[in-house]
Design a protein that fits this description.
This protein has about 190 residues and is α+β, with helices and mostly antiparallel strands. The protein has one domain: 3-Layer(aba) Sandwich (Aminopeptidase). The protein has helices at about 5, 20-30, 40-55, 100-115, 130-140, 165-170; strands at about 10, 60-70, 70-80, 85-90, 120-125, 145-150, 155-160. A seven-stranded mixed beta sheet has the order 1-2-3-4-5-7-6, with helices on both faces. Bound molecules: coenzyme A (COA). Coenzyme A (COA) binds next to strand 4, helix 4 and helix 5.
Length: about 190
C-alpha cells in the first residue's frame, strides 16, 4: 500500500454521507456521459440522493465511501443475493486517482462480501472501459479464482470465487489467479 493510501479512510456510508455520495454519483454519471466539466444540476443531485438513500436502507446492499484529507473522494456500491456479491458502481473523483483510493474501496467491499457469507462475486465490464488494468491489479493483489466468464453485447461478466485460495491443499495457483496489469481482466 502506498503512503497516500494510508491517508484514506474507507467506511460504510452513514446517513451523514448521503449528500457526498450523491455528489460523487452525479459526477460519475457526467464523466460517463463525456461531460466531466459540467456543474451538477440540483435536480440530478436530488434524484441521485434518493437513489443512494434507497440503497443505504436496503440490507442487501453494500455502500462504502472513501475520504482523503477530510474530502469525500470515492464510493463503491454493490449488492448481495444469497452467496453472490455483485459490484454495481465504483468511482474515484478524477483529482484523487492513482493514490490507492479505488483499491481501498474494493478491498473493503471484498471483506464485507465475505463477512456476509458471499462465496463469489460477479462483475460486468465493458470492452472499452479504461479500468481493466485496475481490476487486473486488484486480482493480482487479492488472488481469487475465476469461476466463469461470458460476454454478451460488448459486456463481459466475470464470476470470481471469494473463498481464500489454499495453496497447500490445491497444490499451487489456480485459474484466473492474477494476471499482469494491462491484460483484459474484469471484475
Ligand atoms: C477505476 C478507478 C476506480 C481506479 O481508482 P484509483 O483510485 O485511481 O485506483 P488505485 O489508485 O487504487 O489504482 C490501483 C492500481 O490500479 C492500476 N490502475 C488504476 N487506474 C489505472 C489507469 N487509468 N491506467 C492504468 N492502470 C491503472 C494501477 O496499477 C494502480 O496502481 P499504481 O497507481 O501504483 O500504478 C478510477 O480510475 C475511476 O473511478 N475511474 C472512472 C470510473 C470507472 O472507471 N469506474 C470503474 C468501472 S469498472
Amino acid at each position: 500500500m502506498s503512503e497516500d493510501a494510508e491517508d484514506v479512510v474507507v467506511r460504510a456510508v452513514g446517513e451523514e454521507d448521503l449528500h457526498a455520495v450523491a455528489r460523487l454519483w452525479v459526477e460519475m454519471r457526467l464523466e460517463e456521459a463525456g461531460l466531466p466539466d459540467r456543474k451538477p444540476r440540483a435536480s440530478d443531485l436530488s434524484s441521485v440522493y434518493r437513489l443512494a438513500a434507497r440503497r443505504f436502507r436496503d440490507p442487501g446492499r453494500i455502500l462504502l465511501i472513501a475520504y482523503r484529507g477530510g474530502q469525500a473522494v470515492g464510493f463503491y456500491s454493490g449488492r448481495i443475493r444469497g452467496p453472490v456479491g455483485g459490484g454495481l458502481d465504483l468511482y474515484v473523483t478524477a483529482g484523487a486517482r492513482r493514490r490507492g483510493v479505488g483499491g481501498r474501496l474494493v478491498e473493503a467491499a471484498l471483506t464485507r462480501y465475505r463477512e456476509r457469507g458471499a462465496d463469489r462475486i460477479v462483475g460486468a465490464l465493458r470492452a472499452n472501459q479504461a479500468c481493466h488494468p485496475f481490476w487486473a491489479r486488484i486480482w493480482t493483489a487479492h488472488p481469487a479464482p475465476l469461476l466463469s466468464a461470458r460476454e454478451a453485447a460488448g459486456v463481459e461478466w466475470r464470476t470470481r470465487s471469494l473463498v481464500p485460495i489454499d495453496a497447500d491443499r490445491d497444490g499451487g495457483p489456480q485459474m484466473g489467479q492474477g494476471q499482469p496489469a494491462g491484460q483484459s481482466n474484469s471484475k
